[in-house]
Amino acid sequence: KEMLDYSVDKLTAEMEIPYQFDWLIGVNLLKEDIGATVQDLALEKFSDVSEMVANSLGYQYEIAEDWYQDYLSSEADVYQTLSALRVQRLSDEELFYYQRMQYLRYIPHLKQEVIANRSIINVTDTVIKPMAGGFLKLESPYGSSFMAVLPIAKTPIIFNGFHLGEFVQRFNFPVELRIKAEFMDKNSLKGRMGRSNTRYGNIMQEAESTDTVQQDDIILGSMSLKDLMKKVGGKEEVIEYGAFLIVTGSSLSQLRRRRQVVLGYFEDMHVEVSEASHDTPYLFQSLLFGAPLENKTRTWPHYVTPRGFAELMFFTNTSSGNRIGWHIGRVDNWTGRWESIEKAQESSKNMVLFNATVGNKEGIAGKQTKNPHFLITGATGEGKSFLAELIFILTSIQDVKTLYVDPKRSIRKHFEAIVNSPDFEKKFPLLAKHIQNFNFVTLDSKVESNHGALDPIVMLDKDDAVSVSKNMLNYLIFSNKHITTTMDQMTAIKEAIDTVVDQRQRGEIVGLKNVLDILLDSKEKDIQSVGKYLNSVVKNSILELAFSYGDVEGLSYDKRVTVLEVADLSLPDNKGNNQEVTVSDKEINSTTLMFALGAFCTRFGELNRFEDTVEFFDEAWVLMNSAEGRAVIQSMRRVGRYYNNVLGLITQSVHDAEGDDDTTGFGTLFAFREDHELPDILEHVGLDVNEENLEWLGNMISGQCLYKDVYGNLNMISVYNIFEGIDPLLKPMKSTVSSNLENKYAS
């Protein structure tokens, strides 16, 4: 709760009002007249006239309780037509809230308070005061704000690339876009086109007769008009629309600055935006939901075909991430290259929220994948470990069991040094206590206390203990081409494993080393020789991590947060399936250990189907370079599709996660920069490999990545940690005299 409250306070202090962009579509519905008689139609017309007369005299016409029945068929037709846009019907609460929001623009409030009483009279419970300069002041019980309406007066004649719906989302403050549109009547349209064509002809004839230069605007305007006339003659529809930008602020000075930024932005694009200083009160009324395209909004008309209307890129979204989650960064809408990650973060207020546990949940509107797993790739130093550890720490605060596999052995030492310092404990006592409760496990065979931590007989149930133990010992034997085994020897190994596992089930303190002792104590020399070989291989090797007499705690499934460090793993690279490659003893031992590690990870994810579990594999290339390592990953991915388990891989190359027999990929992708793989990264996230995209990707700086979420949104984001206490945990590199001087004298 403290972290969530801090998030709200931090983001509110920076942004005043955190916001997101939603697209709303309103369509006028026609009353259903199917089956009506002439008498019914006459009665309905009379009722409409009576209502108009009553309203003009100040009376209110009583509305029937089942009035909506006449519009259900029309609404169903509209919903079906718009289904290609993945639209969602608004609930009663949402409809009231969006209506009320028109009178609460940029006024801090709680949604629950606003919708507590959804009486119609409460929709307009705001005092609207016109101000000098064409501004409006909104005064409500929740506070006050100021707003201005800026109509788009003139757009480029060459309409290609005028993505208005995207442009308004690029500002670092909220800019609302309102569109009023309707299909035009063909008869009136032909008259307008004829008059405009005559006017263009007269202007061009006058320029020719006076021997003056024809202006480009006139030439292009005439060409576009003739093209429109041709399309109308071909029965193509034409849309008349008005586009209006609504800018808000908490003070007049802030509003003036923001309005000037908007005007300057569109001026640079050669788009004429009217300040409409004297029309703001009327535009406020005319732009309310449900108001048609009327005289006031027709003051700045635009005429386009449906294809041209689509060029405005409505319903596009520059947001990324989950609707509810932890703040991990900001969307970067600029295609250029930032000087620093700090400037990229400051330029955007488009928040990125992430919740690792919703990937495979059902019933989430708009979600395009049920694949819960996420992949973080990128070159060393680009920020992938920073992001992974940020997500890990934030996820650990939730009611989720988490496991972080850290082959670099960097987290434990750094985390413990930070949280155990007196200054940190004093400043962030709750966070320090939380990190101190982590179950840190270091799998280092050089440390005797770690021996047996991965003993399968200690940490697995009966069936898995037998299976994994057998696989480990068999792999050690069969990997040595100089050893020939007999059926009696293999049978003895199996019987020894069964005996020790049964003893463990009865409560005796035994482990995998007891299996070796049984073989060594055998009266048959052949069986003794197998025991001697296995014992010699295990002694003073990484395999001691998986062999014990059962007197160790082993890796626990009960710990809510575990950081698992693996030292000295050396796995063979056999992606090419080259059978002639000689595998070293160290690689054989590391591969054998993977059976135990994989079993633990699989069991961790499937122990409780109704419990959320998240596993992070840092430096995943260590696993993916071998068939056994890839088998661990594939096993975990399969667990996640049925259980509430999420697997996060952190690795250098986008190719590291390419499995031999699993093509389902990952539901969520984070791709940091890797200069040698720019085309591969574009293909990885589903973008075309072209010059424009390569240049855009090449402008990405350290701390930025491409993010593809479970909704299919793809954007470049700047990773940004807002928690002061977490920041030192993510930055292990301390400043030095040299680095401080470098920054001091930077030009």
Automatic annotation (TrEMBL):
InterPro entries, per database record: ATPase_SAG2001_prd, P-loop_NTPase, T4SS_component
PANTHER family noted in UniProt: SLR6007 PROTEIN, UNCHARACTERIZED PROTEIN YJGR-RELATED
Record-given protein name: Conjugal transfer protein
Organism of provenance: Streptococcus sobrinus W1703
